[in-house]
Amino acid sequence: MSSQDIPEENLPSEQGDAHDGAVATTADPFADPGLPPHEHRVQDIDERAAKRSERVIAFLFLLSMLATVGFIASYVALPVDKIIYVYPIGHVSALNFSLGLTLGVALFCIGAGAVHWARTLMSDVEVADDRHPISAEPEVKAKVLADFKAGAEESAFGRRKLIRNTMFGALALVPLSGVVLLRDLGPLPGTKLRHTRWSAGKLLINQNTNQPLRPEDISVGSLTFAVPEGMKEDDHDFQQEVAKAALMIVRIQPENIKDKKELDWSADGIVAYSKICTHVGCPISLYEQQTHHVLCPCHQSTFDLSDGGRVIFGPAGHALPQLRIKVNEKGYLEALGDFAEPVGPSFWERG
């Protein structure tokens, strides 16, 4: 349908002045209506109101800082297993509740402070700008930089020092929440990685029969697993301790033992090595009688038990630690001390 077919009373008539002086005629029915008159906020005309808003924003940022400190304090002070009752939620972990509450308050106050700052103190004058090609001309670049500078001045970022400083403090403290969460990687090990439950005089207990081992219980070519005397499966820390103290025992003809230290630490050709692979800590369980090699099933690291447990293949970084043993006066195998070096995978402190 052409414009000639439209009744005259339905055609748009001339409108008043539009944005930039444009006049709407029948040839331009979609003229820019322009922006409504700008309405000043109370903070724009009353410095006392602006100061009140500034104090509110600073208070929110300070509250965020205190909440972050509370987050860190809760993380350090509250035990993991402490349970509290919170109405109407019920029984919850005190640590989880305090961490969620304090971190939520810290993040909320930063956001609320930024929003309140933008709505009350930053310039809210609407500016219309025509679209332009993507490739900017030098004049446009200069205009953008000038607009940015003007925006920075209008935000009062340099003039409202109280807001600026408290915001920097809140933003600087919040990342500490993530730093302290690294504790969830586990408690600091101290010297726990360097010690196991083995000590001088502890008997070697067969892990299958729970009976002390005698030399005659171990035949040439067999592989026997042992744990220290006194360990029980119902102990609360059994899994942690057996993961370090698990032992594998083989019997090799003394003339086939290549390493002198290994021979000195053995008893009648019976050698005891850590069962924990020195790559990522998998339990070793595959033994080849003819070569005296043991294989880790996880990543195929191979160790020679006739040559000090050294690595002959695979990604493991060092030899299996050996436990020094002897036969006591009652005819049982017993340890002469703990492992001389940490068992299991390498770690950065290991010398």
From TrEMBL:
Annotated segments matching region Disordered: 1-39
SUPFAM superfamilies for this protein: ISP domain
Keywords on record: 2Fe-2S, Cell membrane, Disulfide bond, Electron transport, Iron, Iron-sulfur, Membrane, Metal-binding, Oxidoreductase, Respiratory chain, Transmembrane, Transmembrane helix, Transport
UniProt KW rRNA processing keyword: no
Pfam families: QcrA_N, Rieske
Domain Rieske residue range list: 239-334
Xref: InterPro entries: QcrA_N (IPR045603), Rieske_2Fe-2S (IPR017941), Rieske_2Fe-2S_sf (IPR036922), Rieske_Fe-S_prot (IPR014349), Rieske_Fe-S_prot_C (IPR005805)
Broad class of where this protein is predominantly found: membrane
Domain of life: Bacteria
Membrane topology qualifier: Multi-pass membrane protein
Compartmental location: Cell membrane
Cofactor(s) listed in the protein's UniProt record: [2Fe-2S] cluster
Transmembrane feature ranges: 56-77, 97-118, 162-182
Family of this protein: Belongs to the Rieske iron-sulfur protein family.
Functional note: Iron-sulfur subunit of the cytochrome bc1 complex, an essential component of the respiratory electron transport chain required for ATP synthesis. The bc1 complex catalyzes the oxidation of menaquinol and the reduction of cytochrome c in the respiratory chain. The bc1 complex operates through a Q-cycle mechanism that couples electron transfer to generation of the proton gradient that drives ATP synthesis.
Protein name per its UniProtKB record: Cytochrome bc1 complex Rieske iron-sulfur subunit
